[in-house]
Every structure is written in structure tokens, then in C-alpha cells.
Amino acid sequence: MPAPAGRRPAHPPARSEIDEQTTLGHTYVRSLMRSQLRAALTALGALTLLVGPLPLLLALPAPEALVWTALGFGVYPVVWAVAHWYVRRAERNERDFTGLVER
Amino acid sequence: MNQTHAVAAVTAVVLATVLIGALGLRISRTTSDFYVASRTVRPGLNAAAISGEYLSAASFLGIAGLVLVQGPAMLWYPVGYTAGHLVLLVLVAAPLRRSGAYTLSDFAEARLESPQARRVASLFVVGIGWLYLLPQLQGAGLTLEILTGAPDWVGGLLVALVVTGTVAAGGMRSITFVQAFQYWLKLTALLVPALFLLAAWYGDGAPRARFDAPAVLRGHTVVEVADTVRIGLDDPLTVTVTGSVDSVAYTGRTVTLAPGTHHVRGGTTLSFAPGAELPARAAGGSDPSAGPSRWPAAATDTSCTPRTG
Prior knowledge:
Chain A has 103 residues and is mostly helical. Chain A is 77% helix and 0% strand. Chain A starts with 13 loop residues before the first helix and ends with a helix.
């Protein structure tokens, strides 16, 4: 419902800033997008750091059982944990944003 | 496998697929229904559906064969798929869902504000889908041919008809139900034989054979060499030969071949005693592309036909 003219609150809620596409509203959306991008890049970095060096490790003379364990079992919980962290982080970012906007 | 059983099993799976697809048919009415099942699919069901795609003919049949032939390093393939799913989640799935777009092309257009990007994305989606589809259809044809003796195009056509019908009629909801059903079916089909194999292996005293150990014939084995081949021997090999080895003709004589390269003429029959080591095909022979592959791999092509007696 539009606020009557002349009775705008001193600090309009973030939602109307976004709806009216003001610079401040733009900044709110921008900060959400940045935090989501940061979460994505962190997840990718974790994947690269945790799984990337594995070929080097397996290039060392290692028992075959280690190859089976690492590639057959070990990698999957790591990838799952990174994905789980990312989804939780992205949802928290959205909740924080909603909290900010619906304040 | 008994052909009647195979036909019955394939028919049962096809019927179940169509029935489960029809389950989604009644519900799919809106665009949102069609593309994202109106976001009503629970994560567990959705995970089963995505995993159903993951357990494709390639991973179902291909990885097992690759590990058998090349060793456990081939487990990098499934690791690659899994890491790929994470990259997909982070870079495509999450931003796509947040944008509210239904398809990759929608997302490309919305994000880059360019109809051109939409067209390029559509082309990529169709191209990648085609590359993914071809081996699946080939796998379907091959599997049905092996199981029932049907011509190799029947399997591909059957799969194409069932899947196209389900998607066209019921959209994402139908196909999610179908994929989830197939995931549990395929997982069962993988796990039950795997458990029986493990039990058999354990009952056999848990033998530990290395992948790079030379292949040894367990029984008396007769090999018909269809095409002329050069074999390399590290140790002397005693075989009974009917045909021509190193340009000397034999008729059922037992000879001991010295270490080195030997020339076996096409049409020759080699008879190995139990416990004999399978000779490797020599590099730089009449077929340079073949390389030093071992015969068990070559036994599937037409160059030689083993008969175990």
C-alpha cells in the first residue's frame, strides 16, 4: 500500500528502496549478490584445494588400497561437505537479506 | 540369461516407467509444473532423480569395465562427475534458481540481457544433450541386443519413445518420478550382484589378484586366431598348434616357443594348457594401432575367438 504523500517515514524500509531502484536499494541487492558470489568462490576454492592435490598425492608410490580408499570413498564426503556448507551459507545469506528488507 | 525372462524384465521396467510417468501426467498443467514441477519435489526425491541420471549406462557398465582393464585410477571418472555436480551447483543451479528462470537459456538471457546469448546457450544445451544421448542410446541398443537378441536399433528406439513420451506429456514432474524410480531400481540391480560377488569372493578365501599381474588361463583353453598377429613372450610358452607359427606349419603338435616375438598366421588354432600365461600382442606388428594390449581385451573383437574346454 503506497504511503500517503507528505507522511513518508524518515527512514523508509529497505524494500521500498529496492522497489524504487534507488542507489541505496541497489546497494542492498548488490551486497546480497556479492555475498552469494563470495560463497560460490569459497566453495570452488575449497574443492580445488581439497581435491586438486590428490593426483600429486597418488602419484607418490602408494599402496593400491590407498587409491581405492581415496577415490572410491574418501573424495565423496569432502565434496558433500563443501556442497552442504555452500547451500547452508547461500540460504543464510538469503535469510539475512530478507531480515534486512522486512525489518 | 533366459530370453523369455529378459523380455519379461525389460517389459516390466518399460511398463513401470510409463505408469510412473503417467502419475505426473495428471498433475502437470502449468509452465511451472512442466519445468520445475512447481518446486514441489522434495529434496530426497530430487536427489534420487539426479542420482538416477548419474547411474547411466556409462557409469553402470563403463566404469566397471574401465577399472577391470585399467585399474583403480579409472575411479577418477566418477570423482570427476561428482566434483562437476558441485561446480554445477555453485555456478549454475544456485544462480539459476535465484534468478527465477526455468531453463539455462532463460537464465543466460536474463543475466546477460542478450537474446543472442539465449540462442548460443540453447545451441550448447542441445549439442551437449546430443553428445550425452548418443552413448546412452548406443548402450540401450547394446544391452537389449545382448539380453534378447533384438536388432541393435530397437533398444535406442524404445528408450527414445518412452522418454520422449513421458517428458512431452508430463514434464519435469513425470520425469523426476521416473528418474527416482529408476535410481532405486538401478541401485538394487548394482548392489545385489555386488553383494553376491563379494560373498563368492569371500567364500573363495578372499584371493588378492593384482590388476597388472599377467592373465593366467584357469582351464584348458583353445584360441582361434582370426587375423595374423605378432605376440611377444617374456618366458618360454608351450602350446599345441594347428596352423602356422613363424612360417612353420603344424598340425596339432605341441611346441615350446622361445622368449621373443612370434608371428601367428590368421586361422591358426592355439591350445593352451591350464595355468599357461596369456601372451601379449607385440607392438609394431602387423597392426601397429593395436599396441601391446593383452588378449583378454582383444578377445571381444574379431581377431581371436577363445573357447574354454
